[in-house]
Each structure stands twice: as C-alpha cells, then as structure tokens.
Specification:
Strand order of the largest sheet: 1-7-6-5-4-3-2
Number of strands: 7
CATH architecture: 2-Layer Sandwich
CATH topology: Alpha-D-Glucose-1,6-Bisphosphate, Chain A, domain 4
Radius of gyration: 16 Å
Strand content: 35-45%
CATH class: Alpha Beta
Structural class: alpha+beta
Largest sheet: 7 strands, antiparallel
Helix content: 25-40%
C-alpha cells in the first residue's frame, strides 16, 4: 500500500533473530504454522476484549488466505490477509487485528539461510502512517515485537530446533 504525498512516512519496526540449528524452511514452518505455540494468546489477542479465550492462530497457506484467531467458543477474529507465502523464504500479511484494511499495516518476515543449519529471520512491520496514532502505535509495537518475536519466537525456535 502506498503513502499519500502529504503524509510523513514513519520508520518501520525491524526485528531480527538468528537461529542456530535451524534451516530457513524449519523457521518458516515454526513462524507460520506453529504460531499459536509461541504467540502469547493470553495477552496479545482479540479474544480477551471479547470475553472469551483464544485457543488457536490459523494461517491459510496461500496468497489471499486469512490469518485467524479462533476462540474456545468457536468465534473467529481476523488478524489479516496473507500477501506473500513463499515457504523457507518469505511470509507477509496485512496486520489488521480488528481494524479496516485501509488503516492496517503490513508485516513481512524473511527467512535467510546463513549456513546448512543456521538462518536469520527478519520481521518488518510497516504502514504506520495510515493510522491516526501511527507514531505512538509504532513505539508500542517496537517494544511488543521485541518480546513477541525476538524473545518468544526466537526462544521457541531455539528449543525446537
């Protein structure tokens, strides 16, 4: 999505983890298809504000697929739409979490082999300028991705690999 000429661009949030004992393909699988094993659903989900409990995160593995939070009472909340699905290389999605697509951001995750059993995973979150409080949201997500992506995903991947 492009930024109108009169809007000041806000720097993306970029986080990187290096995984030893993991291929780019394995890291992709853990990030995309095992997200609910490392994502803190108890604190970072739409379910609590809707008086229910999140039990799963589901990625429909195709461009145009949905990223869904499923709850214990069967409801589903859209997190976004898959924009890129390249196993072992790249995953991207709109980052909506209950917002309209016009005011959503994008999250792109790249998987890069550094050796036979080491890879780098880089997450880039953009689109802050489409949100009324984008600069403030960016600061919150900068800290949040540090915990969720670097610590939780990085820690999960290190244990599983």
């Amino acid at each position: 999505m492009s930024v109108p000429n009169n809007v000041v661009e806000i720097a993306p949030v970029i986080k990187t983890v290096t995984l030893k004992r993991s291929t780019a393909e394995a890291a992709f699988r853990m990030f995309v298809h095992e997200m609910d094993k490392w994502w803190p659903l108890e604190t970072h989900a739409l379910a609590p504000e809707n008086n229910t409990k999140a039990i799963a995160l589901i990625v429909e593995p195709r461009i145009g697929g949905r990223v869904i939070e499923r709850t214990e009472d069967g409801r589903e909340f859209d997190w976004g739409e898959v924009l890129a699905y390249e196993p072992g290389a790249r995953f991207a999605m709109t980052w909506q979490l209950g917002r309209a697509r016009e005011v959503s951001g994008e999250v792109e995750v790249r998987f890069e082999a550094l050796s036979a059993n080491t890879c780098r995973v880089t997450l880039t979150h953009t689109g802050w300028e489409r949100m009324a409080d984008g600069a403030q949201m960016r600061e919150g997500y900068n800290a949040g991705w540090g915990d969720v992506f670097e610590r939780r995903f990085g820690g999960f991947a290190a244990l599983i690999s």
